[in-house]
Every structure is written in structure tokens, then in C-alpha cells.
Specification:
The chain is an alpha+beta fold. The protein is 25% helix and 46% strand.
């Protein structure tokens, strides 16, 4: 990280910032092209290990890319505010951001899918006791990102 004075290293603060984000962007690489897609997500934290969950169709570009290369970069940000100045170069932008790397895997087990979807729902509704129709679970692609490394920055 170039601007070390902006780095946040406190794990609890990093986690709170990630939990405060409403979307993550997953970055994939396929051959010589990058592809970024925003997704809704859920977070599971255990012993300072982070797992991110997301869902979508069971087929398509994202699934094809994960199948070819399961390693992703992810990004999330929040608290955006423009700082106005007298001159163009006096303008700035305030933010909190997360960037990390992880490995994606598909969740096939129905019980594990339900737990993962409840994790996503908890992120947005604060409730994690939802039930899901078995037919919906069978049709829904549910994936997890096992986070390998992540960092946080604030300005």
C-alpha cells in the first residue's frame, strides 16, 4: 500500500467497514481480459478468517470464469464524500475501502446453501432465520470466497 498513513490494520475496524458495505465487486481474469461484477454478499467470520458468500445463476460468464480460474480479487467501499476546495487540485474524496484476494468454490449441499443464503440475508435484513424452498435452492448457484488476504484503507 503506497499511502501507509491511510491503512487500517485493526481487524475489528476492518471487519466493521466490510460489514458496512452494501456491495462487493469481484474481479476475474480470463485469458488476457479482466471482468468485474458487483454482487450482494454475506460475511462469515471465525477466528479472524473471513468467508464471503454470494449467489447467482448456475450458468453464465461469471460461472465460466470461476470454473477456469477460481482465484478472485474483491473490492468494497463506502463513506463517499467529496471535499470541496478553492482550486481544482484542492478537491479530494473521502472513503473507506477494502481490497482482498480469495478462492471461490461452489456450494452444492442444500443445508450449506441455506446457511450461506441466510448469511447473505443477514447482511441486508439483520435476520438469519429465513427458510428457502428446496426447488429454489436447487436452481440457485451459491458460491463462497475463502479470503486469503485483505487490506483496508481510509481517507
Amino acid at each position: 500500500m503506497r499511502r501507509k498513513e491511510r491503512e487500517i490494520k485493526d481487524y475489528s475496524t476492518m471487519l466493521a467497514i466490510l460489514e458496512g458495505c452494501d456491495c462487493i465487486r469481484l474481479g476475474f481474469v480470463n485469458e488476457n481480459r479482466a471482468y468485474i461484477v458487483p454482487v450482494n454478499f454475506g460475511i462469515k467470520e471465525k477466528n479472524e478468517k473471513i468467508t464471503l458468500y454470494f449467489h447467482g445463476a448456475k450458468e453464465g460468464r461469471k460461472i465460466d470464469m470461476i470454473t477456469k480460474n477460481p482465484y478472485v480479487c474483491f473490492e468494497a467501499d463506502r463513506k463517499h464524500e467529496v471535499v470541496i476546495g478553492e482550486n481544482a487540485c484542492d478537491y479530494s474524496f473521502l472513503y473507506q475501502s477494502i481490497i482482498g484476494y480469495g478462492e471461490v468454490s461452489f456450494i452444492e449441499n442444500t443445508d450449506e446453501k441455506s446457511r450461506a443464503l441466510n448469511c447473505i440475508m443477514k447482511h441486508y435484513s439483520k435476520r438469519d432465520n429465513w427458510t428457502f424452498d428446496k426447488r429454489v435452492l436447487e436452481k440457485t448457484g451459491v458460491m463462497k470466497v475463502s479470503v486469503i488476504e485483505w487490506s483496508c484503507k481510509e481517507h
